[in-house]
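Our consortium's second objective concerns turning raw sequence data into structural hypotheses that experimental partners can test. To show how far this objective has progressed, the report includes one record in full. It was chosen at random from the queue rather than selected for favorable results. The single chain below, 339 residues long, was entered without modification.
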Amino acid sequence: MPGEIELSPTDDLMEMVVAGCTAQAIHTAAKLGIADVLADGPRTADEIAAEVEAHPDGVYRLLRALTTRSIFTELPGRRFALTPMADALRRDAPNSVRALVLMAGHPITWETWGQLTHSVVTGEPAFWKLRGMRVFEYLARDEEYADLFNQAMTFSSNIEIPTILDAYDFSRFHTIVDVGGGQGRLLAAILRATPKARGMLLDIESVTAGAPRVLAEEGVADRCTVHSGSFFDAVPAGGDAYVLKHVLHDWPEDKAVEILRSVRASIGDNGELLLVALVLPDDGSPHLGKVVDLDLLLEFGGRHRTREEYRRLLAEAGFELRRVVPTAGAASVVEAIPA
């Protein structure tokens, strides 16, 4: 278009670098609860600052910066209002992203990302270097961080579950085992969609403690049993479908194979294994999972995988990859059968 200024590669690169500043600004707005203050209508920066107990000039400069990314909009008189993206930062907004934003901008997360060079050079998770333990061990010790982590994971599940159910038909299964299924939100959704099926939920005791409440609220408690334990030790037998949603990506190859072999020991010859996972493209095309994969390197020592990498991983554990079913979201359903 005439009059448009074309950005140089250097300008593009600087935009990407500054994106880190924007991410932390979004985190600060979410932490202060500014979107909640604006839920009833526009307010001045001074009024917002009084509500959130912050410095008026600091609040103004924060919101002014975020308006450049269409997060909040500035009106005459230094007044600010919500935009659709800012509205998603409200605590009570449908599909609120606040928990995920707070997790992404948490000091522990940022300290870990500051050690990316260490992980790239050594191939080892920076989180282990900084904390002296694995993420799940740390979550058992830091209640505040664990609560935020669980809220962020719940948000992610709430977004993904409808796309999974729309893309994949679970109606042919009689007993569905959710391995590492948290408090059972995915399993509950599957059981609601398959009224004749029964379910079994497996996770560690500190997680499954909240499962009975979730299953009861979803109206499926009478069709689901809860098992507390490690999937490294044993997986409940008797299912004809075994679901693992975003489990394997948290673990390096040897541990991922160990988990799959634990499932293989319990699954019947006619059973099916269903992995809900981000499957990376085999070529150089862009994909969200390629960036998120760095977070797995930093924190868990795990990885996202391509279709071929899943085929090899499954084969090593005694499974045959049958197909990959895409969803409308980022995740796919990797379907496999005992080999």
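The partners drew two points from this record. The CA atoms of residues 164 and 327 lie 6 Å apart. The longest strand covers residues 319-326. Both points have been shared with the crystallography group to help prioritize constructs.
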